[in-house]
Amino acid sequence: MSRPTKCRMICRFPQTLEFVPAAGGAGKEPVILTVDEYETIRLIDREGMSQEQCSQRMQVARTTAQKIYDTARKKLADMLVDGRPLKIEGGEYRLCCGENRFCGVDCFKQELCQTFQRPKGDNTMRIAVTYENGQVFQHFGHTEQFKVYDVEDGKIVSSQVVSTNGQGHGALAEILSALRADVLICGGIGGGAQAALASVGIRLYGGVTGEADAAVEALLAGDLSYNPDAQCSHHEDHHHGEGHECRHGYYAD
Fold first, then answer.
1. Average per-residue pLDDT in the chain?
2. pLDDT above 80 for 143
3. What is the radius of gyration, based on Cα positions, of the chain?
4. Cβ atoms 97, 115 nearer than 8 A
5. Residue 9, class by beta-carbon neighbours within 10 Å (0-12 exposed, 13-18 middle, 19+ buried)?
6. pLDDT for 95
7. What digits encode the pLDDT tens for the residues 93-134?
8. CA angle (241 as vertex; 120, 38 as ends), nearest 5
9. 6, 92 contact by CB (below 8 A)
10. How far apart are CA 27 and CA 21, in angstroms?
11. Calpha distance 87→26 (Å, rounded)
């Protein structure tokens, strides 16, 4: 029997998921770079980590990190030499919510993770809303605050406003993961952010307008008006528990 594939820990979800050559490549077969392959490029080539450090951050064997990295570099070469589009999707990974002991001391998710811990067996549902002046903020990638509601037995038992501390776009999904959010209510939201939220199992209700408190009450009553295909006009392409599911991919550890 083959060994099960081990999830690769991803600290940063990519903000841009698709690249197309300026000319001549739009009709070609795209190169598919998985999210875990992207992470090795980010850690080794962008952050300057060794393969050993990369493997610790991703919580896999060094030989596994090397294999993922080598494959990623080959795909990038194919893209550049052949002039093919690039898409980032898939892979066996889970998004770090601040619990990775190999994260750097500057990881903004660690404090949130500690503050918003939820004990095992907790039946509380946590709902986050993009928030500004009591209203549902309409542009996910630019939101400066989330209002976070804890719900028990269908009733709101507590709420508080949490600052995003200047983080934007892709990092906002990481903040929501660190907040242990089960649900997000928002206005417009780009495709990249939707993919990031899906990667951590956060249920999305987009295209919502009006007062944040009223939106949460409507959700709990089962009559929230939302648009499952809501997209933000700005350029943003860039029931949950402790188990962050792996996304499907290609390599076994």
1. 80
2. yes
3. 19
4. no
5. buried
6. 73
7. 877 665 655 555 555 555 555 556 655 456 789 999 999 999
8. 125
9. yes
10. 10
11. 12
- DSSP reduced 3-state for 152: strand
CA distance 207 to 228: 7
Cβ 13 vs Cβ 35: under 8 Å: yes
The values of phi and psi at residue 126, to 5°, are: -115, 120
Determine contact, residues 174/97, Cβ cutoff 8 Å: yes
Rounded Cα distance between 202 and 229, Å, is 16
- Both tokens of residue 160? 């508080």
**CA dihedral for 15, 21, 25, 31, sign (positive or negative):** negative
Between the alpha carbon of residue 13 and those of residues 2, 94, 216, 226, the distances in Å are: 29, 10, 27, 25
Taking the C-alpha atoms of residue 223 and residue 105, their distance in angstroms, rounded to an integer, is 43
| Contact assessment for residue 197 and residue 184, using Cβ atoms and an 8 Å cutoff | yes
User: Is residue 49 within 8 Å of 102, Cβ to Cβ?
Assistant: no
Put simply, whether the predicted model's pTM sits higher than 0.70 gets the answer no
Check if the beta carbon of residue 164 is closer than 8 Å to that of residue 239: no
Record the tokens describing residue 75, joined without a space. Answer: 């795909």
pLDDT tens-digit map of 25-43: 768 899 999 989 999 999 9
Q: How many residues does the chain have?
A: 253
Alpha carbon distance 88, 10 (integer Å):
13
Q: Is the dihedral of CA 196, 10, 130, 221 positive or negative?
A: positive
Q: Give me 144's structure tokens.
A: 């400066």
Query: CB pairs under 8 A, 24+ apart, for 20-27?
Result: 20/85, 21/83, 21/84, 21/85, 24/83, 25/83, 25/84, 25/85, 26/85
